[in-house]
């Protein structure tokens, strides 16, 4: 049964296959980014190396730690991977705080399902499984956004209990409760 877990080296091979499916224009979904001014973005080639992949996993995991220094444009976030055994199916991020830009466009939770795993209900399961985690971080409700024309994501958010607040800059903004009354 697919579940959200902390990033792990156990899915290295499948992670790389998913990276190839997303392609270079969607590398952001892989979570391989620089979080301080000291490191570079990870490339697909770097991630192939098991040692570099392990470093990348630890860096991604460190983003949740309030003691980790981040670039000024970033907020702390808990990154989770949606896996079925050793099969990497997607990623989800729970941002601990919102900047003005994130309030307008990004929200607390973002998620992405690898192309070959779409239309199997994974997005809904990912978002639903993340709500108690967000509640544990003291976030209730969470803001989740999607592009105006992204019908699939809109359905995922609504299935998780999202209530539409409004549309801003081509993004639909939904509030999803994390605590069940």
TrEMBL record:
Q: Which domain of life is it from?
A: Bacteria
N-acetyltransferase domain ranges (all copies)? 43-181
The protein, known as: GNAT family N-acetyltransferase
User: Known InterPro entries for this protein?
Assistant: Acyl_CoA_acyltransferase, GNAT_dom
- List the top taxonomic levels of the source: Bacteria, Bacillati, Actinomycetota, Actinomycetes, Propionibacteriales
One annotated GO molecular function: acyltransferase activity, transferring groups other than amino-acyl groups
Which keywords label this protein? Answer: Transferase
- Note the SUPFAM superfamilies from the entry: Acyl-CoA N-acyltransferases (Nat) (SSF55729)
Which species is this UniProt entry from? Kribbella capetownensis
């Amino acid at each position: 049964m697919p579940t959200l877990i902390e990033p792990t080296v156990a899915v290295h091979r499948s992670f790389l296959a998913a990276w190839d499916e997303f392609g270079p224009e969607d590398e952001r979904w892989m979570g391989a980014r620089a979080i301080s001014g000291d490191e570079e973005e990870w490339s697909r080639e770097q991630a192939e190396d098991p040692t570099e992949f392990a470093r990348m996993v630890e860096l991604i995991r460190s983003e949740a730690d309030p003691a980790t220094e981040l670039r000024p444009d970033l907020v702390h976030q808990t990154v989770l991977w949606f896996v079925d055994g050793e099969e990497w199916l997607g990623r989800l991020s729970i941002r601990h705080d919102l900047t003005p830009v994130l309030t307008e466009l990004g929200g607390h939770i973002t998620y992405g399902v690898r192309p070959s795993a779409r239309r199997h209900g994974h997005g809904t399961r990912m978002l639903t499984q993340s709500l108690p985690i967000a509640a544990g971080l003291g976030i209730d409700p969470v803001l989740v956004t999607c592009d105006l024309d992204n019908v699939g994501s809109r359905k995922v958010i609504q299935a998780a209990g999202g209530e539409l607040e409004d549309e801003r800059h081509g993004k639909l903004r939904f509030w999803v409760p994390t605590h069940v009354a």
